[in-house]
UniProtKB/TrEMBL annotation:
Residues 463-667 form the Peptidase S9 prolyl oligopeptidase catalytic domain. GO terms for biological process: proteolysis. It comes from Dokdonella immobilis. This is Dipeptidyl aminopeptidase/acylaminoacyl peptidase. One of its GO terms (molecular function) is serine-type endopeptidase activity.
Length: 669
């Protein structure tokens, strides 16, 4: 390891750049301010949002609330809690208050070990916050009533009855659920997430939706008469993906009403999108996917449903993913984010004729938005050279609402270039190419192929910190969106349905051939790597082709027989692959990298997170063991206590440093 570190230092020094301080390095990951949760006040004059940043003292990432005027002035930090978090700010309709979620303890002297996530309340223009709710096991989500007197709250059933003492040791975990584990939540028992009505004045909470099912994504109608939410019902909700929107009046004992009836996902919570009420409370805009059998391959379409009749329609069927719909004040248009190949932009959809007009343009990726007042729009997004930032969307383009990452202006960053090439069967494939800092035409460079997760996701024109680290250290980066990726429509995504590591491997190898032909990639110094499905595909690539001299496979799996019942995807496996005892051919195909591990010669660094129930460590462990058995250079790194998405700053930095050192060692000896 010392030798690798020394080689890394030598290579960094050798880069033809006068000022090393301008190069983006692994330590810079901890300096990035991560913005989220943009929320406009009802009149559109103010924006509240969160900023998450690394705290070196406790090696955690913490989030605080900020506020800025829509004109960009009076930007201030509302909360200052270095040892806890605040997120999901929500304005009261009168603009006087901001409610939010926080995991801070009730009292300053209380132990943080006893803190749970609750709803807190503070004056909109700053001041002391007070805790509103006191749910035993915390609050997951909430929304204001229009009159600001109540909250609709999503909270999980308590683990222990009220007024009972917790046992000294955790009780045995007992479950009869079909899906019995979930990343971040752990093992699932009989407890469920339910909708509650919370009265702010009295502090009283009333359960609205009891039963063996979960409720999520609450949205209160502007007229105050109805709460919409998303749930799965049926004999066993764990066995399907058929989410539906339900309605209920805000009073205990009120009957529920199922609004959507499509036999597939209506607003899967994974899409991070709430039901959006029209200004007159007569319609709801939402997202609709394909039938269950298509799991995550079908694009999420914008849908509008009439609340009285239950009749729904797809106003703009364009075979692309929509997210975060918001109504225009006139009730005749909807604003939403629309994904295309490599980019996502804000668009306005005319409900009368389905026409779609993009409101921002160029090589950027928009992640979230909010709309209020007379169609004032704020968008959270970025591009190759800028992490997510807030901007107002206006007729003449975007107007920045401040820059929390201005320090990056002093860094020498590498811009991504869009590329297009044909796969072996003639299918057009797209991706991004990042040339190393100090690139000299005519020189071939060690090249790292990055593979995205999903599989139905895509690399977009957004800031990728790891690409910048690699480019600063003399590597070219090739990011390919093979078949299975989003942004290109249903047929392009489902081309790998129940056939992982086949067409997408062909596309990856064609991309490598393309950049070698361009004279940029050195064919003798190729690396590959990814996280999640990116690691699954990495394993398939190195089992299919021996040209790669180094690989990094993080949170991946290759023996799908072993994953059945061990990760959280039992429902998805059954829908796409069937069962191991009936559909052996499909499971053999999906397990090709493990069953063919004897042909792998690429030195591979395997990584995983100890408490990951999304893609558990078993997947990395088995591949590591297979390569170690054959004395192929390999290493296994396990990040303690972490879930699928690493969050501890030192672990994120460690992963980046290890990946870089691995590629340096094998591609730049």
């Amino acid at each position: 390891m010392k030798r690798i570190a020394c080689l890394l230092m030598v290579c960094v020094v050798c880069i033809a750049h006068a000022d090393e301080d301008t190069l983006f390095q692994p330590a810079d990951l901890s300096r990035i301010a991560d913005l989220g949760d943009p929320a406009l006040s009802h009149d559109g004059n103010w924006v509240a949002y969160t900023i998450s940043s690394a705290n070196a003292d406790d090696d955690q990432s913490h989030s605080d609330l900020w506020r800025v005027r829509y004109d960009g002035s009076q930007r201030i930090q509302l909360t200052h809690t270095p040892d806890s978090n605040e997120w999901r700010p929500r304005w009261s309709n009168d603009g006087a208050w901001v409610a939010f979620l926080s995991n801070r303890p009730r009292d300053a002297d209380a132990s943080s070990d006893d803190a749970t996530t609750q709803v807190w309340l503070m004056p909109a223009h700053g001041g002391e916050a007070r805790r509103l709710t006191d749910f035993a096991d915390g609050v997951e989500d909430f929304v204001w009533s229009p009159d600001a007197k109540q909250l609709a709250v999503i909270a999980i059933d308590p683990e222990f009855p009220a007024d009972t003492e917790k046992p000294k040791n955790p009780p045995p975990i007992v479950t009869e659920r079909y899906q019995f584990k979930e990343d971040g939540a752990g093992y699932l028992d009989a407890r469920r997430k339910h909708l509650y009505l919370f009265d702010i004045a009295s502090g009283k909470a009333e359960l609205l939706t009891p039963g063996a099912h979960d409720e999520q994504l609450p949205a209160w109608s502007p007229d105050g008469k109805t709460i919409a939410y998303v749930t799965k019902r049926g004999a066993d909700p764990d066995r399907h993906l058929n989410y539906d929107i339900y309605l209920i009046a805000p009073k205990a004992g009120a009957p529920e009403r199922q609004l959507t009836t499509f036999p597939g996902a209506d607003l899967d919570p994974y899409w991070e999108t709430y039901p959006a009420w029209s200004p007159d409370s007569t319609r709801i805009a939402y997202l609709q996917s394909g039938e269950d059998k298509w799991v995550y391959y079908a694009p999420w379409q914008l849908a509008v449903i009439d609340v009285a009749s239950g009749k729904s329609r797809i106003p703009a069927p364009i075979d692309r993913c929509f997210t975060h719909p918001r109504w225009a004040a006139d009730g005749r248009h909807i604003f939403a984010l629309v994904e295309q190949s490599l980019v996502t932009h804000v668009a306005r959809i005319d409900l009368a004729d389905g026409t779609l007009a993009e409101l921002d343009h160029g090589a950027r990726f928009d992640y979230d938005l909010d709309v209020a007042g007379k169609d004032r729009i704020v968008v959270l997004g970025g591009d190759d050279l800028h992490p997510y930032a807030l901007a107002a969307v206006e007729a003449n383009g975007l107007r920045a609402l401040g820059d929390h990452n201005a320090w990056l202006d002093k860094k020498t960053l590498a811009k991504a270039e869009a590329i297009r090439f044909d796969s072996a069967d003639g299918t057009a494939i797209e991706g991004l190419l990042v040339k190393p800092v100090g690139y000299r035409p005519g020189t071939r460079y060690p090249t790292i192929v990055r593979l995205h997760g999903g599989p139905v996701y895509q690399f977009s024109r957004e800031f990728m910190a790891d690409w910048q680290v690699y480019a600063a250290n003399g590597f070219a980066v090739l990011a390919i969106n093979p078949r299975g990726s989003s942004g290109r429509g249903f047929d392009f995504a489902r081309a790998i349905y129940a056939d992982w590591g086949n067409k997408d491997v062909q596309d990856v190898l064609a991309g490598v051939d393309h950049v070698v032909k361009l004279g940029i990639a050195d064919p003798a110094r190729l690396g590959v790597g990814g996280w999640s499905y990116g690691a699954i595909l990495t394993n398939a690539v190195i089992a299919s082709d021996a040209r790669f001299k180094a690989a990094v496979s993080g949170a991946g799996a290759s023996n799908m027989y072993a994953m059945y019942g061990h990760d959280q995807y039992i429902r998805e496996y059954t829908l796409e692959l069937g069962s191991p005892w009936k559909d052996r051919a499909l499971y053999d195909r999906a397990s090709f990298p493990f069953l063919s591990a004897g042909r792998i010669t690429t030195p591979t660094l395997f990584q995983c997170a100890e408490k990951d129930f999304n893609v558990p460590c078993l997947g990395a462990e088995q591949m590591y063991q297979a390569l170690r058995e054959r004395d192929v250079p390999t290493r296994l790194v396990i990040y303690p206590g972490e879930n699928h998405g690493l969050s501890i700053p030192s672990y994120l930095r460690d992963r980046m440093q290890r990946n870089l050192a691995w590629y340096q060692h094998f591609l730049r000896p």
